[in-house]
Each structure stands twice: as C-alpha cells, then as structure tokens.
What we know:
The chain has one helix spanning 89-97; strands at 18-25, 30-37, 45-51. It is mainly beta.
Amino acid sequence: MSMKRSLHVLCPECGSRVTCRTSEQMTRTVREGRMLCDNDDCGCAFVVHIIAVRLVVRGLAPNPELHLPVGRWREPANDDSPPRPANDDRIAADLVTG
Length: 98
Ligand SMILES: [Zn+2]
C-alpha cells in the first residue's frame, strides 16, 4: 500500500487552504497552477510554480538533457554547516585579501 500525500498550498493573503483550479506543465521541471482561496471571505486568486530543483535518486531511465543536482530530501540550513577549522588556510587568505 502506497502512502500518497497531496500538496497543501496556503493562501498568501489569509493563510487558508486553497484549491488548484487548473494547472499546466510549462517545462519538464516546472508546472504552473492557478489557485483559488477556499475562504469565501478572502477570494484571493494566485499562481504557483512547482519546480523540480534536485534529484534525490536518479530515475532508472535518466534523461540526458536533464541537468538537476543530486542531493538529499532536505538540504541543511546555511547555519547547519560545520564551522570552518581554525587552522584553515583560507581564513588567513581572506584576512590578507579582505
Ligand atoms: Zn485567502
């Protein structure tokens, strides 16, 4: 049994759930959706882009024209990277060159 989850998008105006009215595949990696807020008191309509930004596992039939990086499901936040070692020569070079 597979577990499928739908993509939940929230209204940028009021934060309510929205419904995708129509969507169109723009390119191999971009799909555009026209969204309508479910909150009758809001009525916001907006456009979203769903973009493939990286692969986690390459497909079994790889597309040679696809140039996406391979990474993890979630990339670490900028402040999650390990601190630069104190004896790193680049620090001295940075101080010299500014
Ligand atoms: Zn709304």
